[in-house]
Hints:
The chain has helices spanning 3-33, 50-66, 81-90, 102-109, 144-154, 169-181, 194-202, 213-221, 269-283, 286-294, 304-325, and strands at residues 39-43, 70-74, 95-100, 121-135, 160-163, 187-190, 208-212, 226-230, 256-263, 298-299. By secondary structure, it is an alpha/beta fold.
Amino acid sequence: MNILSRRRVLKLAAVGAATSAFRPLAAIAQATQWPMKPISVLVGYPPGGLTDAGARFLSRGMATALAQPVVIDNKPGAGGNIAAAEVQRANDPYKFLVANTSFTINPHTYSTPSPVPTEFTPIGLILESQLVLVVNPASPAKNLAGFVAWVKAESEKGFSYASSGNGGNTHLAMEYFRERAGLPKMSQVPYRGSAPAIQDVVGNQVPCLMDAASLLIPFISSGKLRPILVTGSTRLPALPDVPTAAELGIKDFVVTVFVGLYGPPKLPADVVTKANAAMNAALGDPAVTSQIVKNGDMVGGGTSERLATLTRDNYKLWGDVAKRNNIRAE
């Protein structure tokens, strides 16, 4: 190799080394300047449900806090798996996910591989909702004792309950309740979402269901459904006369469903900090807070670790329930 060629090689090597050394610095700089363009928030469900509502509670406030548009992108299918897989695959700091409790259930109930929630970056909790066990007002069950007696009396013929979908959170919650209350086996009647499931209980086609308070309160208030109990640690302000399961003697049964904001895996820490601060700013808007509470839900907020803990705890809880009851989504 002549001197000129050697100098050329050394120069290219130096440029390559400088470039490779610069890449992490460039990534850090980009993270520090985040966001520099609009942010996409994927929702794995159609517009109008609890998860979609959670995303829309954030969009305007976060956009203001971050000085960038926050665009909601509904990509329903496979219990939210389609949207989650896209966020994971893209691994883009401008593509986030709003997911609900089913996010922690799917890996345990789908035969095809599902995104694992603990591999995503938690940003923050948007809202939580207690569940309510409801029956049709024509049923003989006026309270928990009446409900238990009714289920046991009908068990030989077969007692059924509605759910928002096979392997979803309302399915697993009802099976977990059945275990803790010492009830005999019941038959699940799965629907394509909460709305048709609720309508068939209202129409007395199916005896009962357990679903999010915010979805059931309008039907309870109008007398179309009768509440038996709520599943949180305290009574709901919107349903002050409805006791908790714990008050009624059902031990170790405190259940809520949640909606949270997640980033892709290994999101830079400063992006998490900025996104979490923007989320808390959005939830701090009195108009947003009052609407969440009016719906019968509980306002989220707080640190990213709060959502991380909730995700880990639910992932273990529902995995155990699914395994004990051999629950599959398909």
